[in-house]
């Protein structure tokens, strides 16, 4: 039986209670659900891709040194080998190469989603008027969201075989409908 969203949420919350990590999980889920429609096979991939985004960092709070080993093991126990491999690929220290669009999209959406959120948090109108030009300008500022790995963002976009501007716009567009839930409305209210 395939993994359900309730199962994924239960496991995520069993290992994670940090609000920012939970928000990141939901952010990447939103981006990955949209990515399935653009980079995947469409509707048939939406749930799989969304759940992969939701749980990709599930073990990070408890076991940061082993991340994502616990998540990968849990996904394999659930019979979700495709998800487990994508989560493994997203841990770039493991050096695995992507085999599928799911693998490439997770890498391309994970760090960039977090970076887009950071950009929204310093803008008066948040994501409402955010454009790729602003995101690219912030990417050049190494002190802004310094923990975000710009090389992984670049690599993910290259793996998808797309140009940076359209992919950045894609992530913005994927998150914009969830602005209230994800607290992306900006500093002005």
- Mean of the pLDDT scores? 95
Count of DSSP helices?
Answer: 10
Number of strands: 0
> Which sheet architecture does the biggest sheet show?
none
Number of domains: 1
- Rg from alpha-carbon coordinates: 16 Å
Helix content: 55-70%
**Oligomer type:** single chain
Pattern of helices and strands = HHHHHHHHHH
Q: Shape, please?
A: globular
Uncertain segments are none
Features:
10 helices; mainly alpha; 189 residues
Commentary on this structure:
It is globular and about 45 Å long. It is an all-alpha fold. It has one domain. The model has no long low-confidence stretch (mean pLDDT 95). It contains ten helices and no strands. The protein has helices spanning 5-15, 19-39, 43-55, 69-77, 81-90, 101-121, 132-140, 150-160, 164-175, 179-182. Helices cover 64% and strands 0% of the residues.
How are the elements arranged and paired?
Elements lengths: L4 H11 L3 H21 L3 H13 L13 H9 L3 H10 L10 H21 L10 H9 L9 H11 L3 H12 L3 H4 L7
Helix pairs in contact: 1-3, 2-3, 2-6, 2-9, 3-5, 4-5, 5-6, 6-8, 6-9, 7-9
Summarize it:
The protein contains ten helices and no strands. It has helices at 5-15, 19-39, 43-55, 69-77, 81-90, 101-121, 132-140, 150-160, 164-175, 179-182.
């Amino acid at each position: 039986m395939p993994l359900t969203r309730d199962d994924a949420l239960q496991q995520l919350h069993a290992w994670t209670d940090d609000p920012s990590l939970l928000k990141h999980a939901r952010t990447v889920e939103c981006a990955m659900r949209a990515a399935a429609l653009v980079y995947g096979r469409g509707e048939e991939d939406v749930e799989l891709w969304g759940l992969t985004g939701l749980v990709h960092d599930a073990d990070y709070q408890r076991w940061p040194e082993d991340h994502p080993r616990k998540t990968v093991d849990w996904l394999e126990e659930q019979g979700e080998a495709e998800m487990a491999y994508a989560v493994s690929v997203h841990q770039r220290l493991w050096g695995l190469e992507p085999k599928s669009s799911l693998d490439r999209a997770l890498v391309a959406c994970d760090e960039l989603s977090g970076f887009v959120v950071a950009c929204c948090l310093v803008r008066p109108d948040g994501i409402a008027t955010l454009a790729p030009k602003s995101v690219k300008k912030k990417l050049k500022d190494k002190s802004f969201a310094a923990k975000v790995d710009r090389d992984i963002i670049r690599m993910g976009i290259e793996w998808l075989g797309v140009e940076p501007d359209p992919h950045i716009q894609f992530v913005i567009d994927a998150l914009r409908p969830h602005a209230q839930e994800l607290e992306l409305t900006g500093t002005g209210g």
